[in-house]
Amino acid sequence: MKKIIGIDLGGTSVKIAIISPSGDILEKWSIPTNGLDNGNNIVFDIIHSIQEHFELLQLSEKDFLGIGMGSPGKVNPVEKTVVGAYNLGWSRLQQIGKVFENIFPLPFFIGNDANVAALGEQWRGAGKGERDVVMFTLGTGVGGGIVANGQLVTGFGGAAGEIGHLKVDTEQRFTCTCGGKGCLETVASATGIVNLARYFSKEYEDVSSIKKAVDDGNDITSKEIFNSAQKGDVLANTIVDQFAGYLGLALSHVANTLSPSHIVIGGGVSAAGEFLRQKIAEKTYENIFPQIRDRCQISLAELGNDAGVIGASKLVLLGVKNN
Amino acid sequence: MKKIIGIDLGGTSVKIAIISPSGDILEKWSIPTNGLDNGNNIVFDIIHSIQEHFELLQLSEKDFLGIGMGSPGKVNPVEKTVVGAYNLGWSRLQQIGKVFENIFPLPFFIGNDANVAALGEQWRGAGKGERDVVMFTLGTGVGGGIVANGQLVTGFGGAAGEIGHLKVDTEQRFTCTCGGKGCLETVASATGIVNLARYFSKEYEDVSSIKKAVDDGNDITSKEIFNSAQKGDVLANTIVDQFAGYLGLALSHVANTLSPSHIVIGGGVSAAGEFLRQKIAEKTYENIFPQIRDRCQISLAELGNDAGVIGASKLVLLGVKNN
Questions:
Q1: ipTM for this model
Q2: Do B258 and A163 touch (CB under 8 A)?
């Protein structure tokens, strides 16, 4: 039974795994991401690490179906290139596919990291292998990935899944990294919840640990806000309800468009767990078309850091070929 | 070269066509839809009409690849059933596929009418055969259809494309047919624009043909509102701008999610043409993520009433098999 190599390229480390065709992780390891010298060593570091493990595990190319990779930045899955992955030092176009295919005589596939994680969760995580699954990844920003008809939706030019930029804040209070205002990401990411905390602290007059931290000029984190909310802090609960309200509205837009069986919530912020999931689900269900609502589960991600390597290996199985 | 039969089942007539595998209409005709007796004769009327045309044109089953149909109501494309098509008298489950497959030894496929029209426009109309195309159909309500990766997206349970129920009116002024408030359909359909006309007429104090019609208790139509707007009526322009603003927001949500190369605007209301298209496009582009905006064209539908039969025949080619 031939295996697959899954690679999840991140800003601080590269996760690499050998995966069975049914999605079980047989081996996994990681190497640091070397962002020096415009990230010129990253791809060769990965290739050397794979070659080392081939030797170590007495494997060779003929034991594999192919190699799949998830990458930050703007990924072109047909040309197998990446550009604008600034956290890797890759501001210019990187010919990832050509390098891999020159060295390993194996099919190579690449996708955007948020899309690839969604594919992993759809296949072996909270999506339970269903054909229509959407993932929202709540981190510093809000990323997303869409699986429809069992296929990863990459869209024209590979830009699908930009759900962090759905315009949901009609008051347009905060400027987004994209230059716009009102984007989901400005109110429903780790950054967004801090935006809301600062905004609501100003007008709040009672005692609150969050208000105190803001007024004292301390950094606050999404984790502190969720913790305070669970302890009954009124301001923190206002902030979390707003956060969940915007997410719920965005989830309902995506659900009404695609009718997924599962919407999966992942990323660092989703560590707030069932407390957050319930609030988001409540706000989402308020806004979904009834026939879709009855069939759409809202779940927390299940694969954690493994979603990337598992999704990357699924890319190989799908042989994804898009624009 | 084998041909395809495309059927577009509507509330007043059934359009039927013989179509080439490249999507050219070779013959087309229509029969009235007989809604009497709970619509029990509809399927047999269609079958008889096809049999008559087989005789007339000296064709038989062996000249065809299959039969495709678009239908109103809730369509299950796997079971090939329809339920809740009230305008046909079909409140109960209809076993359309079984009847067709018993009579014609040909593959039979069925889809929701809005989805099938989108597939037609994607294939041979304004979508220019691109793989990622979305259609918004503006009629009494707002319907939609999504083609991603060249496949019709039907979603879990066949309910994808309910973009008429995206919640875009945060003031939630009008109740929707779904029982909710704030749905796109309540502000951006033939019904929705009249809702807006009544709402804005109340507070408007200058002379306006639209305000006069509302105050006199006359029925007004979307056509009259668009005509008045083009003639410079200030109130009518306010109404049209609101209408276009809500549509633009909804289009941006779908575009940010799916990154389509084309968004096609069709349906009766789209008869307002280039005047309306420009306004919608402007509002949409204000809200789209830059990288997607640069690649997404907003176009008027091109196939008119033929979209249904052409899309239905494409269903056969795709051999759509969903949940």
A1: 0.92
A2: no
